[in-house]
Write a structure and sequence with these properties.
By secondary structure, the protein is mainly alpha-helical. The chain is built from ten helices and three strands.
Amino acid sequence: MVWVPLLLVAFVVAGVGCARICRASLAVARPHEVSGATGELTVGEAAYLAGGPLRVTDLTLVSLHRERRLLLARTGWATVVDAGRAGEGDALERAVFGAIGPAGQSPIPAVRPVVAAADSVRSLAAGLVDRGLAVSDAGRREVAAALRAVRAGFLLSLVLGAVSALLVPAGERGPVLAGFALPLLGSGLCLLIGLTEVYPHTRWASPAGQRLLAGLSGADPLTALATRGPAVLEPELRAALRDREPWRRPRK
């Protein structure tokens, strides 16, 4: 019966992971007391709820490109078209021009993380959290940590089950395999539910935010970009927004 302590360890670890993912998902789904009415979403808010700070950055870059204030080249460089208007626009647009710098040209992969970390994006996120539409940083970290705990419980149960099966004679492996099937099944189901139902939807938007996103129409190109990402763009812009290393200045 040397395998029984190993089975108990597998049960404990799998149970802790399953309890943690259930608690995290319930905390995210619980209605929040909001500071004001949820109202309608702006296209920037929709971009954050659907894809986070980088989606907001992509939306702002494409919007400036369509206004001919910024040129997004398929080589992966952003060029300011009219430096005299760089100080105009909202805080997000000014953050883009600030990230590009005084030279008026910068690789897009270098601009995107700078804008995503800007105060204007953090302010947008904080407003959505206050309205109960976005998941807080703490909530996202807890969901991600819970998924890691469930995954660890599943892998540990698998390893301990294999070790236990090797420690007993071949004729006695039936009860061992049956015993370890329970923590494997439980942690596997929790992991599957977490990956398919919890994590993709709670990464940025709360259930209330998801409902507002579902009601948006993708007829407007910028709204489609906000909700579905760069895949809806024309090939030239998709190529411009694609990460690439190393960055090379385009040939003239």
